Amino acid sequence: MPVLVDPAPRGAARTGVVQVKICGLRTAADVDAAARAGARYGGFVFFPKSPRHLEIDAAAALAAEAPVGLAKVALVVNPSDADLDALLARMPVDILQLHGRETPARVTEIRTRTGLPVMKAVGIAEATDLPAIAAYEAVADQILVDAKPPREATLPGGNGLAFNWRLLQGRVWRKPWMLAGGLTPETVGEAIRLTGAAQVDVSSGVESAPGVKDAGAIADFVAAAQQA
Ligand SMILES: O=C(O)c1ccccc1N[C@@H]1O[C@H](COP(=O)(O)O)[C@@H](O)[C@H]1O
């Protein structure tokens, strides 16, 4: 599996087909639905408080059967070295998604230690949150631009919450980035048009219940993103 970097990552001047990540895959049918729909990335969540959480062996079994074209993204939150060692000893992972309070120094450490591409999530609610993206693009391979979770939220992501996409208009970053946060088959086209995102990520927006993926919604989401 080659390192996944979008050919035209630098902001609004998007060219080519939008690449899609379907996050929170929990069953073989979910993996199949994502791959058949044309998703580029499949996300596996390792966060026990999430309805999408998987034990390592369950995720490893799904990952082993995933088609080559679907990059396997392991979503972890403030992982210790021991957590990472345990995960990577048992599961083939193409990209690590860091979705906690990992500092830029910790991102560098994890990238060096694991040798894997790292995608760092940055939460956005207002313009003052944007400078964090620059700090992380210096050290991560990709940035996941997500909605900032509300203070009372149990999950650091996967809350089905969108942010004001206009905040990203005209912004240019050096590294590839992916738009996330409350996207749905109905809204992803507008989100892409407003932000110029070349990559998008969804979890709640393609579910019939928390943690239960809907194959039809996955197909609709990927089609809408690719047609935007
Ligand atoms: O999906 C989860 O349960 C989750 C848990 C902990 C951290 C992140 C999580 N999901 C990520 O959040 C964004 C947005 O998700 P949504 O589409 O708004 O539901 C996405 O990147 C997921 O990978």
TrEMBL record:
Domain N-(5'phosphoribosyl) anthranilate isomerase (PRAI): residue ranges: 20-223
One example GO MF annotation: phosphoribosylanthranilate isomerase activity
Keyword ATP-binding on entry: no
NCBIfam families given in the database record: PRK01222.1-1 (NF002295)
Membership in a protein family: Belongs to the TrpF family.
EC numbers for this chain: 5.3.1.24
Native organism: Dinoroseobacter shibae (strain DSM 16493 / NCIMB 14021 / DFL 12)
Family matches, as PANTHER family: N-(5'-PHOSPHORIBOSYL)ANTHRANILATE ISOMERASE
GO biological process: L-tryptophan biosynthetic process
Pathways per UniProt: Amino-acid biosynthesis; L-tryptophan biosynthesis; L-tryptophan from chorismate: step 3/5
Entry protein name: N-(5'-phosphoribosyl)anthranilate isomerase
